[in-house]
Amino acid sequence: MSSVEIHIPDLSKILESRLLSVIDSRTMHEIHDIFAKRCDPYVPMDEGVLAHSVQVYDDSIVYPGPYAHYQYIGIVYGPNIPIFENGVIVGWRSPKDKKKHPTGRDIQYSHEKHDRASREWDKAMLKSEDGQIFLSDVAKILEERWHELYGDS
């Protein structure tokens, strides 16, 4: 039996360039915005400073603040000095003149306000059902941009 094998020259390059053409700064900002919203229930929250300070850009998502890194890593750093009020520990502080070091203890996140709060909240979200929803959201955005640029072709 005879057969004919046809190769489309550089099809992957053509498709890649057309797909990349739909990913502009507006699209990336929209994708990052959706990502940050999907991550929100996974961001540790006590008073909400970290979760409510998220900054979304075209090329990144930033959680600002001096403690954002420590919350993300999920390891207690010290030295820590207790803060007392009426003989009760109400918090902790670190001396400004001493370098912080990991203690080896995990941060114990409250789940009262964000029941899925965890370290590396972006990775935790992506591994969950929310991650699948996010990927579906991205596919919809890219499809919309494709139709804006190329119609139904």
Would you kindly provide a written description of the structure presented here, covering whatever features stand out?
It is a single chain. With 153 residues, the chain is of the alpha+beta class. Helix content is 42%, strand content 16%. It contains 6 helices and 6 strands, in the order αααββαββββαα. It has helices spanning 11-21, 25-39, 49-52, 68-73, 121-127, 129-150, and strands at residues 55-56, 61-62, 75-78, 81-85, 88-93, 101-106. The chain has a two-stranded antiparallel sheet with strand order 1-2. A two-stranded antiparallel ribbon has the order 3-6. A two-stranded antiparallel sheet has the order 4-5. β4 (81-85) and β5 form a beta hairpin. The longest helix has 22 residues, at 129-150. The radius of gyration is 23 Å and the shape is elongated.
Model regions low in confidence, pLDDT < 50 over at least 5 residues: none
N→C terminal distance:
35 Å
Overall number of strands:
6
* Structural class estimated from helices and strands: alpha+beta
What's the helical proportion of residues? 40-55%
> Largest beta sheet, briefly?
2 strands, antiparallel
β content, as a range?
15-25%
Q: What gyration radius follows from the Cα positions, in whole Å?
A: 23 Å
- Count of helix runs: 6
Which whole number gives the mean pLDDT? Answer: 88
Order of helices and strands: HHHEEHEEEEHH
**How does the overall form come out from the CA principal axes?**
elongated
Strand order of the largest sheet: 1-2
